[in-house]
Amino acid sequence: MRPPVLIVDDDPDIRESLTDMLGHEGYLVHSAASGTEALQQAKQTRYDAALLDIQLPDLNGLSVLKVLMELDASLPVIILTGNVTPENTIGSLAKGAFAYLTKPYNSQELKAILRRAVSVKGLTVRAEHVEEALQASEERFRALVESATDAMVLADQSGLIIWWNGAAERMFGYTKEDALGRPLTIMMPERFRAAHAAGVTRLAQGGTATIIGHTIELVGLTKTGDEFPIELSLASWRASDGMFFSGIIRNIARRKRAEESVVRLSHQNALILDSAGEGIFGLDPQGCVTFANATAARILGWSAAELIGKPLAPLLYRIANGNAARSPDPFCLCAALHDGAVHRIQNEAFARKDGSLFPVQYVTSPIRERDRLVGAVVVFQDISARKQQENLQQAQLSVSHILAQAGTVEEAIPQLLHVAGTMGAWDMALLWQCGRMGDQLTCHGSWIRPSHRWDEFLSVCRNSEFPPGMDFPGIAWASKLPLWIPDALTDSRFTRAPTASRLGIHGACIVPIRTGSIIHGVLELYTEQRRPSDSHLIQILADTGMKIGQFIDRTRAAQALRAAHRTTQSLLASLPGAIFLCGSDLQVQYANALAHQYFALPGESLIGRPLCECLSLSEPALQRQVVEWNTHTADSPHRLSECECEVAARLYRYRFFPVSTPESPQYQVGILLWDITDDKRLQDELIQAEKLSSLGTMVSGMAHEINNPAQAILSMAELIQEEDDPDTVKQFAADIVGYARHVSTVVRDFAGYARAAGRDGETEIDVAERLLEAVKMVRRGPHFGQVEIATQFDAPVFLRARKGEIDQVFVNLISNATQAMEGIGCLTLTTGQDGRWIQVTIADTGPGIPASIRPRIFDPFFTTKTAGKGTGLGLSIVHKIVIKYAGTITVESTEGGGTTFRLRFPALVQ
């Protein structure tokens, strides 16, 4: 049956945690959030123990304690309090509390006290049962005296019954009529009758009686022949008519059963105490041992009989310290006998019979009987396993701390070996690492306990090399598993056994230092003791080996990363372009050496400066470029555009590029710049040369456009010299003005086309307008002939570029088309905008471009014209100009079916 326990606490978390913990321990747990609720439950249920909080929302805990004790004086009440005051602690114990615990409490201590409380309650209940049985017997005895409820029998000197009361009738089954006059032997079994008859005869002859005046236990016999134990008080007296005997007889069958129950209960309690996991002592007021359970005797190495009656504290102290002059109770074992309080000691050391020490925690509690201190109970636990676990955990934390602080394996080795040696009480620790060739293990570090002189063995290890499978390090290397050797001297694989035998080396453990399946080395541990295998310690050492292996991996990766960083820095510094890296705020986070050379003063750093300030770019222009970069994806059909900027009289071309790193979740901007001042000058010169070459082909047309008006001007001027009529002279002068203006327009158009492109600045250009201007320019050439012009212009589209360069593109493509058609055919010009792209088409009806030369038409100096008729730079320059403005140019041609050039440029960002 599960012992019922009541928890009284207004904190729901404490009630819940205690309910779970005690329910797991096998108790039937009831809980109450207030004093009123607790008292109601106590009236309805009889509990084996109660946990009572002092601070309750409605009633004071001590008031609740008083009522609980009134309801059940034997109920063990354990006080829980966070306010440690004499009233709450000693006061509660004085008012009947079994014990008290302070918050936060130790769960193990609480369990131990609760088990003791339930045991004491059980003893109390059983004792009450026995006492009730005894009291019932005593009450019957008093009733016999007062009302003759016990059998009372009178007999004469012959042993014949002369009086028989009602209790005797009920006890023996004879009525008065049946019993009177009959011998006393009818009340006793046959085996006792001869002795009875001899005693009566002896008394009749004047002899002495041995049982008169005493109460003896005999066996009675009922009328039906049933035997039962009786208690007989026999008296005698003499009268004038002889000697008479009186006997008061009590049926003690129930008392016998109660006594047997007490014996059984005592035996059961002894079994309970002996089966407890904690050591338990009972102390008398002088501090001597009154009882010791089997666990206590076993832990201390004594027998219970050796401890009984001896002062416990001085015995333990004298063994542990060998100094009897000190305090006789250094462990506070008897403190509860002095102050009547509960004492809890968390960390102490007890001594065994053989003098060895072991760590313990214990509680000593007073035992009271009717408010009188009659002894104390000491409950203690051997916490050696817990201490060992704590030490191992501390060692593991030390390993992690050492690895976190060290920069290299060499720095960490001395401390790691020291911690590993103390992790399990080893006497020597060695670290073996793979050699440069990776086929041998060599000793790279050692630690020896200062009390041991094992330098000879260490020297042997330092001069040894082990391949996989040889000796303990090689075996652990090959198997990649920990190796535990209870006694190395009995293992034939141990090649260093002769030296180890002289020094007394026995136990060994070998742990691979690994990361996954990669072995970096081996940790080897030795002790002078023969040690059985410890799976828990092996697991901890294996985890330590894995931590060291991971540290080696991290340090190697860090070294490789630093080397890669240095290589990257060298590469970036040696690149022929300036590189900037910026964050989302466009502040420079990195600039290579060439960037500092181009854009910084000597000794000045560009880091942290705004990008627009370093490049002398306007903020709007920079933002437009970043917007384009930010919308670019790997699936975008075009590459990021290149732009130009001028800084300190030098021209630079630049392009943005994305920078993505796992360490930088926010986007970064990269910009690459290269100095194109000299290249641009050369390109402008080539464009100008191509323009002049194109002008050469159109000189005849230009001569026609100028010579005809010039001839008319000359003729009109000659007529004016001979004409006297003012009106006629005025008319001729007006004609001369018109012809002169025509000549001026022709010269201006050709001069504008021939002007160097480098003088033009980027402006917003109407694409359709420039196409028509290019047609007008080419029309004056000798090859235009009767070519028909067809236009398909959508809504106006605008491109930001240099007008001269765009004119160069259109004039080249239109001039090539008219030459291909030899003055006869149709030239179709179209413009339009498709989303973010401007589209321009120039299509002719000429003979087409042969497929064999079509891939080469954009190559520099490639031409199909006869010598002296072309430079071969026209389409190459066209291609360069289109690419410069982030555009594309493609050609579609069918032999005999004409040629179409398609151009695409990014539209202006609105």
UniProtKB/TrEMBL annotation:
Residues 4-118 form the Response regulatory domain. GO terms for biological process: regulation of DNA-templated transcription. Keywords: ATP-binding, Kinase, Nucleotide-binding, Phosphoprotein, Transferase, Two-component regulatory system. This is histidine kinase. It is an enzyme of class 2 (transferase). Residues 701-909 form the Histidine kinase domain. One of its GO terms (molecular function) is ATP binding. It comes from the Bacteria. The modification 4-aspartylphosphate is found at residue 53. Residues 137-207, 272-310 form the PAS domain. CDD domains: HisKA (cd00082), PAS (cd00130), REC (cd00156). The keyword Transmembrane helix does not apply. The keyword Mitochondrion does not apply. It holds the Pfam family HATPase_c. It comes from Nitrospira defluvii. Its EC number is 2.7.13.3. Residues 343-395 form the PAC domain. Gene3D superfamilies: 1.10.287.130, 3.30.450.40, 3.40.50.2300, Histidine kinase-like ATPase, C-terminal domain (3.30.565.10), PAS domain (3.30.450.20). InterPro entries: CheY-like_superfamily (IPR011006), GAF (IPR003018), GAF-like_dom_sf (IPR029016), HATPase_C_sf (IPR036890), HATPase_dom (IPR003594), His_kinase_dom (IPR005467), HisK_dim/P_dom (IPR003661), HisK_dim/P_sf (IPR036097). It catalyses: ATP + protein L-histidine = ADP + protein N-phospho-L-histidine.
